[in-house]
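Sequence, structure tokens reproduced for absentees:
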Amino acid sequence: MFSLVFRAKADAQLSELLSASSRVTKAEAYRTNGDYQGVAVTFSGKAAPAASFELYQNTPNPFKGETLVGFNLPVDDTVTLTVSDVTGRVLKLVRVDGVKGYNNVVLNSNDLPAAGVLYYYYTVETSEYTATKKMIIIE
């Protein structure tokens, strides 16, 4: 199908530096019968460590109109996405049923008070994990 060639620029274990994730596009594959199959990178016959919880920076950022908040879940879980202003006031709350692997939520600036350049924080919370990042709206 395809191959990748890496050239080392420093001493390191490749298994600690390289993994498959869904940060940019969803890491997935399908068998010829259409069944879903996960994607993993293996080294010396061992699979890379399982994906863990991760909250990605919204894209685009800064944004006008819509932005995508992506996150990775190690297991299926209920997810709460909260958007707050710099004072901590909750502006938007979204609950979704997250699935193991990559998930995303689209936020629209029309659903948030926006005039000028505003700094907001978004928090993704599951039953076991919480992470927060900053986003910028330009209206």
Remarks:
- The helical segments are 14-17.
- The chain has a mean pLDDT of 82.
- Residues 14-17 form the longest helix (4 residues).
